[in-house]
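Why MBL fold metallo-hydrolase? Reviewers of the renewal asked for a concrete example.
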Amino acid sequence: MELKQLTKNVYYTTHEERRDRPCLGYIRDSRYPVMVDGGNSPAHVAEYLALLAAEGLPRPKLLCITHSHWDHTYGITAANCFCLASEKTNALLNTMAGWGWTEEEMRKRVETGEESLFCDTHIREEYARPEEIQVRPADLSFHQEIALELDIPVRFFELVSPHAQDCAVILADGVLFLGDAYCSVPVGEDWVYDKELLAAHIAALEEIPFSLCVKGHHPPQTKAELLAELRREFSLL
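Here is what the prediction returned.
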């Protein structure tokens, strides 16, 4: 994992496929440095914090969660920040906080579709002892959009997505932290887009004034590159 700088105030860490570790963001601020997404484990968060410290960047005080999926949230407790998420995301986190982590409970969630086989496989890759997982809900939730008055304006708002019903994105310094909002969803061995949701997602992105985006599991792109990629995906549906 590497820490890379995109603008004077915006950084991100690179993703890792093997353990399904997504990109994590950092927004520099003199009072409340922001961590974008909570990582998939305490180990993931520890590596992130070590990279910040090596660059002389202050530890985050505010954590913004783009959506509830495990790889973006199971490190929330370890981040030890005031946590902010949408109402939709926090409702899902509250549900997940009551999950058990025995072998039987994990298997049952896959069987019922409450969890995907893809996520279950990577959770087991990241955690030698899944029973140690702690899911923590956010400290504060918002409806639709919240503006953060930091050294630079930061918008945190819900966005229609083909990936999940609770996706929200963060806009800072012309950089859009997408989380996984651009992604398809795993269905068996395939990754599948919902055509209507993808069309709505593309239309919403067109209206957002960003120049670069940080994607959860792929390298950053310009707005033009992202839209071109998603339009190609749409044309194949």
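Residues 145 and 157 are 4 Å apart (CA to CA). This is the kind of structural detail the renewal will allow us to pursue systematically.
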